[in-house]
Amino acid sequence: METVPPRVRAYVACIAACASVLLLPLPSARGAGETVALLAVLYAAGERTARRHLAGTFYPVLLAGAFLLPPPAAALVAVPGALLSPGAGRVTPLRRVWRGAQLVVALWAAARVHGALGGRAAVTAADFPAVLVPAGAAVLAFCLVLATLDAAVLALAQHTPLRRTWRTVFPSFPAPVAVHGLAGLMTAVLWSSRHGPVAALLVLLPMYVSGWVFAQAHRERTAHQETIRALVQAVDLKDGYTRGHSERVGRASVMIARELGLDAQRVEVLRFAGVLHDVGKLGVPTRLLRKDGPLTPEERRVIELHPEYGHEIVRGISFLGEARSAILHHHERLDGRGYPYGLAGPQIPEPARVVAVADAFDAMTSTRSYRRARPVSAALEELRRCAGAQFDPRMVDALVRALGRHGWHPAVTSDEPHPPRPRTPAAGTAPPPTTPAGPEPAGPLTGPAGPDAMPGPGGGR
């Protein structure tokens, strides 16, 4: 309460006072009073359940009230549920008052628009499609009022222009409220029919079940994101030298996948693969990841175990799917000179070929302590030069097309807080040049073949 600015408190008080006026006169007719009471109980119960299990608001009952009742009575339906329902975290009295007041104003406006367009008579007569236009106008009014009230309180709290906050807030309203509006309209039509309120519940129950299923899927997706974030943070803590590299590789992998026309599920899997491709560094001794100077052949062999370590770490995470194969094989090469298994050509899984190109591209376009970032055009030219030997030409072409269409805008500066100093690159980075070959390091095919050869731009540690 103490953190709420006085101007916001004053604004909430004004809206609450306006809502109190709009509730007058209270519904007195017996039929309207019973409908208000039944809808208010349904909304309060639905809102309490929705807040606990759906992480949202259950609008169909409110909008059914706007389609069935005059404005003051429709607005009254929201009051008990808004004042008594639980919320996420600590819900202060001020927040409850604000929630109730904004719903009262929005429902009053929706019912007023609906009634002015003859909507209540059309609902009573079950006159389709005549009921659709008034209902659509009422839903739009409901969205506009809610968005405007929310935008105003945010503008006051954040010292931002109302127009800017409104443009941010409003797009989140129409689609879900329109779906709830259709359910509310069917509820109102059945409520007014000879079957009565019991039949209306046949609309609300499937709506709630579908909302619960969606909420469960959203929670599962959130848990997936948290799992991945935790793994990436663990890698960054162990080797902060390449901090941000994983997220950028995930972004480039998505660009390639979309250019290839893969479905949304596979695009998501490839994002996971890109973000987690270096998770195996958790199994590599920190002293090797942070070692200054060249690695010995034995140390390099230890470093080259990180794809296998990564595969073991994520083996039991079922939702990663094909991403596991990309984590294991993203250092393989088409010519069979990669690691850990020396796969060649079509033996290399497609997700691994995507991540290999994304990894190499970000390594070349990111500044490291031992060299400056290459321009995007130079990095793409290097990828083209190595296509067919190290990289899949189809993936390289897809990245070139995607970058030509969307560009590449992530930060390319090193995250190290200290001045650069020479060191051996970490996983996913290009090795420093060993000969004075100009300002850029040698290409990815430079050096002898074999397990101890210096890897290309996507190799490194």
**Proportion of beta-strand residues:** under 5%
Class from secondary-structure proportions:
mainly alpha
Profile the largest sheet: none
Architecture (CATH level 2) name of the largest domain: Orthogonal Bundle
Number of helices: 20
- Helical content stands at 55-70%
Total strands: the figure is 0
Please identify the top-level CATH class of the largest domain: Mainly Alpha
Shape: elongated
Rg from alpha-carbon coordinates: 30 Å
- Report the end-to-end length measured between terminal Cα atoms: 52 Å
What is the mean pLDDT?
A: 82
Order of helices and strands: HHHHHHHHHHHHHHHHHHHH
| Domains, number | 2
Unreliable residue stretches: 412-460
CATH topology of the largest domain: Arp2/3 complex 21 kDa subunit ARPC3
Domain HD: 242-364
Transmembrane segments: 57-85, 137-157, 169-191, 197-215
Keywords: Membrane, Transmembrane, Transmembrane helix
Domain HD-GYP: 220-415
Key descriptive features of the protein:
Arp2/3 complex 21 kDa subunit ARPC3, mainly alpha, Hypothetical protein af1432, 461 residues
